[in-house]
Design brief:
With 234 residues, the protein is an alpha+beta fold. Helix content is 36%, strand content 21%.
């Protein structure tokens, strides 16, 4: 059996480490554009899902171009900000800023019957990590048309139920302003929501913290759009 010196072993190990690192780095660089494209497609699918448009990874971009007719960015005062791309804005970054400094994306969807729906992103914290999604509104800027919620690490069968259709359907037709124009957002009620309430939905059974996290997410994010919503009606 051949014996190798410590120097030989050290040099050989160093070369192998450098070689493997170079291969992994090259692979990451080659895959990065594809990974970024997949992220963009998934985001477009979620935006479209909030207005009831079903997509696949293959047709999402075409359908996004068909149904999303306009995008822009507003500030907390409801004023449009020029020179910004709504799609590229990360709500993860924006929610770290003071409210007055946030850049708030708006997506305008036009359905087959000509109705316009206004879509805004939301982001907050569930039990185990981030929760996020999109909420679409009718042109009264009050009534929810649809939602799409997702998460990073909520518990399957419990908090992860925020992604299910039955839960998201609860929000359809609910309103975020009272009859006198006061912002109420949406209340996620443990037990049983009042069937006559315009702003209550049932919480997920056994998942109070995720449900309340989603309630807080909606209140925090949608309140930033108050001025924008009200300006559209003036």
């Amino acid at each position: 059996m051949k014996n190798f010196s410590n120097t030989y072993i050290f040099v050989f190990s160093a070369i192998m480490v450098i070689l493997v690192a170079a291969i992994l780095s090259s692979a990451a660089m080659l895959l990065q554009p594809k990974q970024q494209k997949n992220i963009e497609i998934e985001k477009k699918r979620k935006i479209l899902a909030s207005i009831g448009i079903e997509t696949t990874t293959k047709n999402a971009e075409d359908l996004y171009g068909k149904y999303i007719k306009e995008t822009y960015v507003v500030d907390v005062k409801g004023e449009q900000k020029e020179g910004l791309d709504a799609f590229s804005i990360s709500m993860k970054d924006e929610m770290r800023k003071p409210e007055e400094n946030r850049e708030l994306p708006v997506y305008v969807g036009v359905l087959d019957d000509g109705r316009k729906e206004y879509i805004v992103p939301v982001r907050g914290t569930g039990l185990w990590g981030p929760i996020f999604g999109f909420v679409s509104f009718n042109d009264d800027f009050n009534t929810i048309y649809g939602t799409n919620f997702d998460h990073d690490s909520e518990t399957p069968g419990l908090g992860a139920e925020i992604t299910t259709q039955w839960f998201q359907d609860e929000f359809k037709g609910k309103k975020i302003f009272s009859s006198d124009g006061t912002f109420t957002s949406i209340e996620v009620v443990k037990g049983k929501a009042d069937p006559n309430s315009n702003n209550q939905v049932d919480a997920i059974s056994g998942s109070t913290l995720t449900s309340k996290g989603l309630e807080a997410m909606l209140h925090t994010c949608l309140s930033s759009y108050q001025a924008y919503f009200k300006k559209q009606l003036n």
